[in-house]
Amino acid sequence: MQKIAKNVYAETDFRGCNPGFVVTSDGVVMIDTPQMPTDAVKWRDIIAKHGPVRYLINTEPHGDHFSGNFFFKGTVVAHEGTRQAILASSAVQTKERLKQTSPPDFALMKRFKFRPPTITLTGEMTLYVGDHTFKLISIPGHTPYQIAVFIPEEKVVFTSDNVFCRVQPWLQQAVPFEWLESLKRLETLNAKVLVPGHGDICDPTYLPEMHRIIKAWIDTVADAIKKGWSVEEAQEKVELPVKYPMLPGSEAMEQMIKRMNVARLYEVLRK
Ligand SMILES: [Zn+2]
């Protein structure tokens, strides 16, 4: 775990997303939750030393950000699209997968269920907790339902998966042109520290690089369409437009992710 500002902590070494939390004068506000139950329980013990959890904000509709909600108290807040995704998720499937792949995690899942947000937004929202302000800002990109969490008192912004810091991005549900706009929006916040959805903690100087990466993906697939390639040909022939490693633990998925990214962009760009 890293202390990244006076009252803000984040973890970049769990499998799944980078969860974080802010210690306010009136309890803790969490941003995302660890994907693996064993990590969630560790995280819960760490957080308990800082006070009760008041709110738990999920930044996006993917399981690696919200699966751990079950292990925490606090009111869940997220984009309405994230609520719909959580309601549509199957806890039975998740349990079955961990039963096969990770018995210690499965052992913690007896009463496991997904916990959806009870407060949702589609635009912007501000939470005031103790002496802290949490600006929740809809920033479509990695999916249409991303939200950034900006804490002005700490000059920290949690970017969701709209920023993958020096690792390959996943674009399987991307709205790529909105993504470019959202990165510009993040630049206008007066943040000093960025907590990306995945990869190392960074700062706003990484935003132009992330913009370049998304632009490179768009241009590469647009070029394939221009050449008259079918989606299957494009998935086969297109080369990765950016040279970053896969997320640790997902190296074997490189080809699959490339194919998913190409398919999504092909579908969006053909319109
Ligand atoms: Zn995601």
Return the structural class: alpha/beta
User: Distance N terminus to C terminus?
Assistant: 44 Å
Shape: globular
- Ligands present: zinc ion
CATH topology group: Metallo-beta-lactamase, Chain A
Annotate the secondary structure layout.
Elements: E1 2-5, E2 8-10, E3 20-24, E4 27-31, H1 37-48, E5 53-57, H2 63-66, E6 75-79, H3 80-87, H4 91-101, H5 103-106, E7 119-121, E8 124-129, E9 132-138, E10 147-151, E11 156-165, H6 176-188, E12 193-199, H7 207-226, H8 231-237, H9 254-270
Parallel strand pairs: 4-5, 5-6, 6-7, 11-12
Antiparallel strand pairs: 1-2, 2-3, 3-4, 8-9, 9-10, 10-11
Helix pairs in contact: 6-7, 7-9, 8-9
Bound molecules: zinc ion.
Zinc ion binds next to loops.
Write a concise synopsis of the structure shown:
With 271 residues, the protein is an alpha/beta fold.
Write up this protein.
The model has no long low-confidence stretch (mean pLDDT 96). Helix 7 packs across helix 9. The chain has nine helices and twelve strands. It has 271 residues and is of the alpha/beta class. It is 35% helix and 24% strand. The strands form two sheets. The chain has a seven-stranded mixed β-sheet with strand order 1-2-3-4-5-6-7. The protein has one domain: Ribonuclease Z/Hydroxyacylglutathione hydrolase-like (Metallo-beta-lactamase, Chain A). It is globular. The site of zinc ion has 4 residues, from loops. Zinc ion (ZN) binds next to loops.
List the defining traits of the structure above.
alpha/beta; 271 residues; 9 helices; Metallo-beta-lactamase, Chain A; binds zinc ion; seven-stranded mixed β-sheet
